[in-house]
Specification:
The chain is of the alpha+beta class. The chain is built from two helices and six strands, in the order E-H-E-E-H-E-E-E. Strand 4 and strand 5 form a beta hairpin.
Length: about 100
């Protein structure tokens, strides 16, 4: 299975534009973009295809912008809302003594 690739500076691109761009580097499993944020993720068919796409597209001019193409970093799980502490790291479970 290939690795997920992070792609930024693609605010005007559609998923089809990105699919076409990456198709020269191998099989594409999925493309998901956050157009309003200007970034997205591409999953390639093999790890080798992912490496070729990263080296071939990072820094390339696309739709008037320079692409940033890197290996996607796994997202760390976030703490559940009830596990978070209050402002300035203070534990909200303490009670006032007055």
């Amino acid at each position: 299975m290939g690795k997920r690739i992070y792609v930024s500076n693609i605010s005007n691109a559609t998923e089809q534009d990105i699919t076409t761009l990456f198709s020269d580097y191998g099989e594409i499993i999925s493309v998901k973009i956050k157009q309003s944020k200007g970034f997205g993720f591409v999953e390639m068919g093999t790890e080798n295809d992912s490496k070729k796409a990263i080296s071939g597209l990072n820094g390339k001019l696309f739709m008037g912008k320079t692409l940033t193409v890197t290996e996607a970093i796994s997202r760390q799980p976030r703490a559940a809302f009830h596990e978070k502490k209050g402002l300035l790291g203070k534990d909200r479970s303490f009670k006032k003594a007055w």
